[in-house]
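Just curious. Protein, please.
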Amino acid sequence: MFANHKTFISATIIYLIIIKALVGQPMERNLAELIPNEIKDWIVEGKDQVLGPHNLHEYINGGAELFLSYGYHKLFSRIYTSSNQPDIIVDVFDMATSQNAYGVFSYSREKEDTTFGQGSQYVPGLLLFWKDRFYVSLLFTPETEKAKQTAFQIARHIESSIKSEGPLPDILNLLPQTLLVKESIRYFRHHIWLNSYHFISNENILHIDNKTEVILAKYGERELRQILLLLIYPNKSDAKTARNDFAASYLPMLLKTPYVKRNGKWVGCKLSENVLIVVFDAPRKESVQKLIEKIQKNLHKK
């Protein structure tokens, strides 16, 4: 019995080591299983492509950085062709986590739409959507009605093949909903996307890395619009350092007071534990204070 007990303990230890090694790693899946092999009147052209992080640049010239900055894992690409129709190019990106897939999608979204997956964006000749850890692109340009309907059929197949939905980033729960322009939300973990709405710096003065969660969002009507920058750091010390370096570089008066008027608009900067809240371009001091106070209240609900 003692020997069996030792064997059991050893097996358990090995199992726990394997599980620990796999935590945070995407479970491998054959992405081809998500895409239909046959579509009426359309055939698969050429050979499917599977690309990893090392050769994504060869496929998306100039656009790979977006995906790589979001923890991109791999890509499966297939082309469908039909007589007198544009090719339909289907790209399925495995982004490792649903938060990464949402983040990539947040940069293509122009309006709130859930026609496909957990969020989608359609413009003539292009359909984008995300579901779970997958970000999907279908390109069919110049668009025809037949190509559009076929692309939508393929999208529905892929959507149904992805059985589960993935969680959104927790940081979204901190956003006050009143006056939020939902399609403006940008989620990222890389400082290269920091200047999306408002130029802050060419340098990484906020010390954003892959351990930092960041949200950019717009609030208010167009003529009174203000920009929220919300950052969650691993600990209080990192957040305090980021706050001090940001203030010293961007607007030194923020080191003395949390609300500063600049060029006729208000800037606010508040640190709450490991969360840094910054508001730009506010029309009034009161609107900055109100937005920051609502976020702090949401923090206390966690």
